[in-house]
Design a protein that fits this description.
Elements (H helix, E strand, L loop, with lengths): L22 H12 L4 H10 L4 H12 L32 E3 L4 E8 L3 E6 L4 H11 L4 E2 L2 E2 L6 E2 L7 E4 L6 H14 L10 E5 L5 E4 L10 H5 L5 E8 L5 E2 L2 E3 L4 E3 L6 E5 L13 E3 L2 E3 L2 E9 L5
Amino acid sequence: MSTSLEESKPQITKVQGLTDMPVEWLRWVDENISRGCTPESIIDTLVLNEYNKEYATQLVLRRFAGDTSVELSMQDHSDLSQGYIYEEIGVKYTEHVVKTHDREVNVLLTIDQPRIILFGNVISKEECEQLIELSKPKLHRSTTVENVSGKAEHHKNRTSYGTFFQINETPLIERIDRRVSELMQLPVLNGEGLQILHYQIGGEYKPHFDYFSPKATGSRLHLAHGGQRVATLILYLNNVEEGGETIFPEINLKIIPAQGNAVYFAYTNSKNQVDPLTLHGGCPVLKGEKYIATKWMRQNEYR
């Protein structure tokens, strides 16, 4: 849950952001992370206290990701991915066409760090329309995970309506679950149920991480059911007239929703490190509406 910042900020000499952060401020950052404050609110406070914004952003996002081993300096840690080890895990396609059991999928874009792939022709127009119609009677206001308790809650940063389908719930869901599993190269049973989201005009999801924060006490509840999330696939079910792009702000990447396409990104390695470069969000829908389907994969069988 997003909450107000702790008012008792450290009473120490202010710095300009090019030196390591004093331990008093590091403790203040960690306390506010554990209380459920957003990265943006913590970063803004550090900037107001004369820290360089790039430095503050690097430090806060890394500590949200559980990296508390070092204090950052601009000279040594200009790359947010430093510290996260990119292994030969997660999907990494070199060919332009991938064959699943029932469909040929196009590889439109690949990025290695962070691991991102844009696929084309993942699902047909008819399948998109069927998923939308199946979801309409079940849609309800989407929730986020509260950091401290781990409970689901409504949040102003997420203004979509959504629903879930159980694994293999219908013949259509079973076919898509299998195809997605083949693309993501993980077992069907490692996946959470397919989530359908609907955004109306103005609907958005501000930048966030899909993995569960290693520092948040509420994450324990979710990690007990299959381990950490390791990768996401977002399927675009319709063409959005204007807006609704998927953004990765740390690498200045913006993906326009196109019916049948899907974006994949991986963020957890075998050392249980999580990649802060996968910070992502959904831009506000400016015209029309937006439907997507999301698949999250876990380290182990999801239960």
